Amino acid sequence: MGSILSKEQLMIKAIEHQDINAMKILINDLTREQMNMMCKYIVPRNEYQYTILHLATWQNNPQLLNLLLDYADDLEIRDGFGWTPLMTAINRDSKENVKVLLNRGAKINCDFVQGMDLIAIAMAFHDTGMNIYIYIF
C-alpha cells in the first residue's frame, strides 16, 4: 500500500523534477494564503533548513521560480545558514534567477549572517559578471 503525499511533499517533488505542469495543478488547488505559506515551508530532512522558495531558486529555472514568486510575500526569508533566495541564486550562479528576484523586489543591501553583503558573496564565488550585474542593478 502506497503512502499519501502531502501537498508540500508534492510541491517539493514537482520542483525537484522541474515539473511546471504539476506545480500549476497544485497551485490551482490552493488559496493565495496557502501558497504564501507553501513558499515558507521548510523542506523536511535537510540540514540547511531551506524553504520551498529556496529550493525553487536553486533549480536555476526562472519559469519555475516565477510561479512561486506570484504568491511569496517575503523575498528576504532566510534558510538555516541565513541565506535569502537572492543569495542562493548568486551562490548557484543563476543570473536569470538573480534577475527575476531583483525585478520582484529582492534587496541587494541585505547582509549575510557572517557580515558579507551580496557583492562580497558574488566575489567569493569568483563571479565578476554577477558582481557587475548586482552593482549596476
What does this structure look like?
By secondary structure, the chain is mainly α. The protein has a single domain, classed as Serine Threonine Protein Phosphatase 5, Tetratricopeptide repeat. The chain contains nine helices and no strands. Helix 5 (62-69) packs parallel to helix 7 (95-103). The protein is globular, with a radius of gyration of 15 Å. The mean pLDDT is 86. Keywords: ANK repeat, Repeat. Pfam families: Ank_2 (PF12796). ANK repeats lie at residues 48-80, 81-109.
Could you give a short description of this structure?
The chain is mostly helical and 137 residues long. The chain is built from 9 helices and no strands. Pfam families: Ank_2.
Task: List strands and helices in order, with pairings.
Elements: H1 7-16, H2 20-28, H3 32-40, H4 52-58, H5 62-69, H6 85-92, H7 95-103, H8 118-124, H9 128-136
Helix pairs in contact: 1-2, 4-6, 5-7, 6-7, 8-9
Which H/E pattern describes the elements?
HHHHHHHHH
**Care to count the β-strands?**
0
Apparent shape = globular
β-sheet strand percentage: under 5%
Helical coverage, percent range: 55-70%
CATH architecture assignment: Alpha Horseshoe
Largest sheet: none
CATH superfamily assignment? Ankyrin repeat-containing domain
CATH fold type: Serine Threonine Protein Phosphatase 5, Tetratricopeptide repeat
Task: Work out the helix count.
Answer: 9
Which CATH class?
A: Mainly Alpha
Mean model confidence by pLDDT: 86
The stretches of 5 or more residues where confidence is low (pLDDT under 50) are none
CA radius of gyration: 15 Å
N- to C-terminal separation? 53 Å
- Based on the structure, what is the oligomeric state of the protein chains? single chain
Structural class: mainly alpha
- Overall tally of structural domains: 1
